[in-house]
Each structure stands twice: as C-alpha cells, then as structure tokens.
C-alpha cells in the first residue's frame, strides 16, 4: 500500500457541502491516509475566513471590546457543519476551553490556531480517522523559526503509530515553552509538506479551489492556461512572488525527499491538476508562469565611483539589519544600488531608514519610488531563448506601463519588473498576452 498526504485548504472545508466532497475524495483511494486540514474558509465572495474572525477576536480582546458574539459566529459555523453531516462529536467542550483560555489572555497565535484545531477535530470524527495534534510535534525555536529536523523526527515517530490520521494545519509549538506558534498566513500548506516528509509519502496532494497552478492569477487574467507540470524551483519563485496557491515554504520539505506535489481541485476532483517535481521542463514553452505582489518601495542610492568603494553594500545591509528588514531585491549599476523593500517590512520607518542611509553612506543622491508592485515572469525556457526580455518590455510599453525597476535573477529563469501599483493588473495581463 502506498501513502498519500492530502491537505485540504479553507475553501475545501468551508461547510458541510465541501466536507462531503472532501470525504468522497479521501475514501476513493486507500492510499489517502494522512489528512491535513485548514480552518474553514470563505463559502462565498463576501464571507469571512474563520482564521480572520479569530484574529478579530484577539483584536477585540486587546482593545477590551466584547468578542463573545464574534466567537459565537465561529461556533455556529462548526455546529452547522456538524449538524448537516450528522457528526457525533462534542465540540462544546473544545469551545469552552478556548473561551476560557481567551479570558486568561491567550496569545494571537493560540487563538488563530484554533480554527485548524476545531476543523481537524470535526473532520477526524466525520471520516473516522485518528486526530493527531501538531502541538509538541511541529517545533519552533524561541524566535518562531521552524526546527525542521526535530519536527521531522517527532512527526515521524508519532505518525508511525497511526495508520490513518487527521492533522490540523498552520501551527505547532515552541519547543521549550510548549506555547502554540503559527506559520505565516497560508501555512497549512507547510504542515502538509512536513507530514509528507515525515511519513515519506509517495505524493503530497494539495486540494484547493482551482484545478492546479495556472499561468497567472485567475482573479487578474481571465481563464489563464493551466500548468500541467512545473519544477520545485520555478514554483518556489512564483509562490514567493505572490501566487497564493501554495505557500513558498511548503516546497523544501518535499524537495529534500523528492516527493511530488499535486495541486488538485476539490470541486472538480477528476481534473489532473498540476504536478510539481524536481524535473526541469524541457518543452518549447518559454514562460511557465507570472506572479506578483503589490506594495514595495525602491530606494535608489547614487554615488560617483560607487563600484570602486569597498564595503558599501555591507553597510547598506547592516543598516537594514539594524531595522530587522530583509531585502527583496538589489539591482545594481555602476554608480547606483537600489534596494527593494516590502512596505510591510518598512512598517512606517522610511524617514528613519533614509536618515541612516544619508548619515552612514554619504551618497550623492537618494531617490525613493513608493507604491511599487513587483511582477516575476518565470520559466526555464527563458534562458534558452534570445529576445525574451525584449518581448516582455515591448508588451509592457504597448500597454503603456511605466517600468520603474528591472532585475534578472542569476538563475536566468526569472525576470522581475517593478511597476506602479496602479499598473499592476494591466502589466500582468500584458505579459500573459505576450507569452501565453
Ligand atoms: N497562478 C495561480 N494559479 C491558480 N490560482 C491562483 C494563482 N495565483 C493566485 N491564485 C489564487 O489562489 C487561490 C487558491 O489558494 P488559497 O486561497 O490559499 O486556497 P485554499 O483555501 O485552498 O488554501 C485560487 O482560488 C486563486 O484565486
Ligand atoms: N487558516 C490559515 C492557514 C491556511 O493555510 O489557510 P488556507 O489553506 O485556507 O490558505 C490562514 O488563513 O492563513
């Protein structure tokens, strides 16, 4: 018998109807033995994700506002699914513990994690698999960094005792204090990958609401072409740049064990979806996918004879390290260095950063471009062809998009352009049209 790990995203466990589809998928293949679930997501466009409601409870708690009614909405969602499916499980005792912990000032991570916890309790009872909590198995250090090897050992030892299990996504615990720690948003994908590695799965199936990875975000490009096969490396670039289907940190645990990832659609289980493996695509295709994110700032630092000045880059990095900021990109010219920073990392401290740059780097000039979006055009085929960059820039020029920054990764399978936030969608459509 083989082993498959399945992760069902929020859209796949959003309500009773979705849970029924989930159960059918699991039961249709005996290899589908380890199931990772997210918290219930949106049932319709203007609905709330349970995780967002839980974070809102925490905000209310911190501001001494009532949160009982908000938590009641969450209870109602779980109870409705339980009733609709006739599941025999006592959820009330779990709600009571969570509410009590909230009254005692529980952390944001603990509260946010309860969506996945309750979801896994419910699904385990529904399909008759064991419930295996990840607290004490997925381990983090004091700085909230995943302890990958310890986690692998702990998960592997525990799961070997269970032939079938439902496992909550998104969280684990601090190795020393035992407190709950969550991954960043979308992190249930990482749990699925860690479980896949721990049980040495033959396949990691990631079930969502699209039939695989598409060449571009379907909310921006109408009916983008699906990607049948993609390499871990290409996918990581796309995920990191904003293609939200799979969390970028979900790739490493599968890559080390060479476990293929299959992105599938819970609403259309017959579709084959996208297969992600180590193999580099050798087809004629030039571009595999396009992805991007909004809200970056580019700081361009000009200094005559900069290339000859030793330690300049190191000083830039040290200043940013003091602000605890990591750089997204760093395009360089002879007398210019630009740093591209996420606005979320700058966190309102732009003036302070510029002050430090001026004081410590003594530049001739500094220019700042705010409200920038980054768009990555990714594909192995790009380094085998001449004229790819020209085609991309012509497409953007024809669409009247002003390019504020260009960076080509050293792997040459990725060209990143910075455009104004207002041009973001237009630019993605133009690039898609040029390469699809
Ligand atoms: N390149 C892409 N291909 C497919 N979907 C994409 C892409 N970029 C963004 N998306 C969005 O990602 C969504 C799936 O991810 P997510 O919302 O995290 O699902 P889940 O709740 O199943 O984890 C899709 O509904 C789609 O809107
Ligand atoms: N529920 C968490 C974790 C997660 O991975 O969710 P989803 O699979 O619905 O993206 C979040 O909303 O971030």
The number of helical elements comes to 14
SS content category: alpha/beta
Number of domain modules: 2
Give the distance, in angstroms, between the N- and C-terminal Cα atoms: 40 Å
Bound molecules: adenosine-5'-diphosphate, aspartyl phosphate
The CATH architecture term of the largest domain is 3-Layer(aba) Sandwich
Q: Radius of gyration, Cα only, in angstroms?
A: 23 Å
**Assembly context of the chains:** single chain
* Name of the level-1 CATH class of the largest domain: Alpha Beta
Question: Summary?
Answer:
The protein is of the alpha/beta class and 436 residues long.
Molecular structure report:
The protein is α/β, with parallel strands linked by helices and 436 residues long. Helices cover 38% and strands 21% of the residues. It contains 14 helices and 16 strands. The protein has an 8-stranded mixed beta sheet, with helices on both faces. The site of aspartyl phosphate has 15 residues, from helix 7.
Name some characteristics of this structure.
about 425 residues, alpha/beta, Carbamate kinase, VC0802-like, eight-stranded mixed β-sheet, five-stranded antiparallel β-sheet, 14 helices, about 40% helix, globular, binds adenosine-5'-diphosphate, binds aspartyl phosphate, kinase
């Amino acid at each position: 018998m083989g082993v498959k790990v399945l992760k069902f995203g929020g859209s796949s466990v959003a309500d009773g109807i979705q849970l029924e589809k989930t159960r059918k998928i699991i039961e249709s293949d005996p290899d589908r033995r380890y199931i990772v679930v997210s918290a219930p997501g949106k049932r319709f466009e203007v609905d709330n994700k349970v995780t967002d409601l839980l974070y809102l409870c925490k905000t209310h708690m911190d501001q001494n506002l009532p949160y009982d009614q908000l938590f009641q909405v969450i209870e109602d969602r779980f109870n409705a699914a339980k009733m609709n499916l006739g599941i025999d499980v006592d959820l009330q005792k779990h709600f009571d513990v969570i509410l009590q912990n909230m009254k005692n000032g529980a952390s944001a991570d603990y509260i946010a994690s309860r969506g996945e916890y309750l979801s896994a309790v419910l699904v385990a009872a529904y399909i008759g698999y064991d419930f295996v909590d990840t607290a004490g198995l997925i381990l983090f250090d004091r700085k909230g960094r995943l302890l990958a090897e310890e986690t692998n050992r702990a998960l592997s030892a525990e799961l070997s005792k269970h032939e079938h299990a439902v496992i909550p996504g998104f969280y684990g615990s601090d190795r020393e204090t035992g407190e709950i720690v969550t991954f960043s948003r979308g992190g249930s994908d990482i749990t699925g990958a860690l479980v896949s590695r721990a049980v040495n799965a033959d396949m990691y199936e990631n079930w969502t609401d699209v039939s695989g990875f598409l060449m571009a975000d379907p909310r921006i490009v109408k009916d983008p072409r699906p990607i049948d096969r993609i390499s871990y490396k290409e996918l990581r670039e796309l995920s990191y740049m904003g293609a939200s289907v799979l969390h970028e940190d979900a790739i490493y645990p599968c890559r080390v064990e060479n476990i293929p990832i299959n992105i599938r659609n819970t609403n259309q289980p017959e579709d084959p979806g996208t297969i992600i493996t180590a193999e580099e695509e050798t087809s004629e295709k030039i571009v595999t996918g396009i992805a991007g994110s909004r809200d970056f700032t580019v700081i361009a630092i000009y200094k005559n004879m900069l290339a000859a000045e030793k330690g300049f880059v190191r000083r830039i990095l040290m200043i940013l390290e003091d602000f605890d900021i990591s750089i997204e990109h760093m395009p360089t010219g002879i007398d210019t260095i630009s740093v591209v920073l996420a606005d979320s990392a700058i966190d309102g401290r732009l003036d302070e950063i510029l002050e430090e740059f001026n004081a410590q780097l003594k530049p001739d000039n500094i220019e700042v471009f705010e409200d920038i979006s980054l768009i990555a055009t990714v594909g192995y085929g790009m380094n085998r062809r001449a004229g790819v960059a020209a085609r991309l820039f012509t497409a953007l020029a024809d669409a009247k998009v002003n390019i504020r920054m260009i960076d080509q990764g050293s792997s040459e399978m990725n060209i990143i352009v910075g455009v104004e936030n207002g041009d973001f969608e237009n630019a993605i459509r133009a690039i898609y049209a040029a390469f699809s």
